[in-house]
Design brief:
The protein is α/β, with parallel strands linked by helices. Helix content is 41%, strand content 22%. It is built from six helices and seven strands. The strands form two sheets. Strands 2-1-3-6-7 form a five-stranded parallel β-sheet, with helices on both faces. A two-stranded antiparallel sheet has the order 4-5. A hairpin with a 2-residue loop joins strand 4 and strand 5. Helix 2 runs parallel beside helix 3 and helix 5 packs antiparallel against helix 6. The longest helix is centred in the N-terminal third of the chain and has 11 residues. The C terminus is likely disordered.
Length: 143
């Protein structure tokens, strides 16, 4: 059986964080991911202008954009994509505000090992409505 990978755009400027997230998404046979990585908002917006991604993992602290400005631009460029905000320990409130503006979910980069679970949860059949498993994953990442 051939399973089409979920397309993911990872927008993260820190190579170590990007590697952790890519590793967390790699090797999933039952629900594979095709991850494309951009280090700047400008590169991500260019890609979003010509490619469609099912999921966008967005760091809100990028060299060429900070905070909600980055989210607003990505949301405008890809309103049908599921956007999951990557939150540092100091910007959790900003991540929550991004959810109020339309982000599907957020999680701390310090819990990158839960990335695969969170993305699978977001792309499940009830993708647009965070369910019990998504809340459980968020609660687990808060520990």
């Amino acid at each position: 059986m051939n399973i089409t990978p979920t397309t993911v755009l990872l927008v993260e400027d820190d190579p170590a964080d990007a590697r952790l997230i890519q590793d967390a998404l790699a090797g999933t046979v039952s629900n594979p991911f095709r991850v494309e990585w951009e280090t700047r908002l400008s590169g991500a917006l260019k890609r979003l202008g010509s490619e469609k991604f099912e999921v966008i993992l967005l760091d809100l602290s990028l060299p060429d954009s900070k905070g909600l400005e980055a989210f607003d631009q990505v949301f405008q460029a890809a309103p049908d994509s599921l956007i999951l905000v990557l939150s540092g320990l100091t910007d959790e409130e900003t991540a929550r505000q991004a959810m109020e503006r339309g982000a599907h979910d957020y999680f701390s980069k310090g819990h990158a090992t839960l990335t695969g679970c969170r993305v699978r949860c977001a792309t499940s059949s009830s993708a647009r409505l965070p369910g019990a498993r998504c809340r459980a994953a968020r609660n687990a990442s808060a520990r």
